[in-house]
Amino acid sequence: MNKLSLVTLSTAVLLAVFLFGSTFASSNSAAFASSDASEKCKDSAKKISDNAEASVSDNVCGIELSRESPTLKLKDKEINEQVPMEFPYQPASASSNSKVLSIVEFTLLQSEVDDVNQYLLDNHWTVTAIHNHHFYDHPRLIYLHAQKQDNLDDVLHEIRNALEKTSCDCT
Description:
This protein has helices spanning 3-48, 113-122, 152-163, and strands at residues 53-57, 60-65, 73-74, 77-78, 85-86, 89-91, 99-109, 126-131, 137-138, 141-151.
């Protein structure tokens, strides 16, 4: 083998090792970042309720929680698991490490709406909608949508406190 071929082969091997190594390191750090985000999301869900379920998609942590009480029915079919409350959040901006944007939906009984609404307003949430979804639900369910941009721990604490104003038996 001549010197030029040996140098070319050595360069090709080094380049392959460098490219493969950096790709491997990059995919590993992405996997660790994804794993960290998933764990942080699960920890966030537990701060709301031990019964909350969490999943991560892109940069959004999705948290769902079904009411344990009372039994919700739609035309005599139990629907507690089909109408979960939703508490997703994501970073408030690409540069923000401390603040999140949370856009939530509470599934409430009519008798709970005023207390939850007032609690959220008192804690500087923006309530964006209050409405029903179904005609034949029993008891009548009302969906309250709200949003807030703040520190994650404060947002999670306020969601839990709002849930404690209900009879959901889910905190």
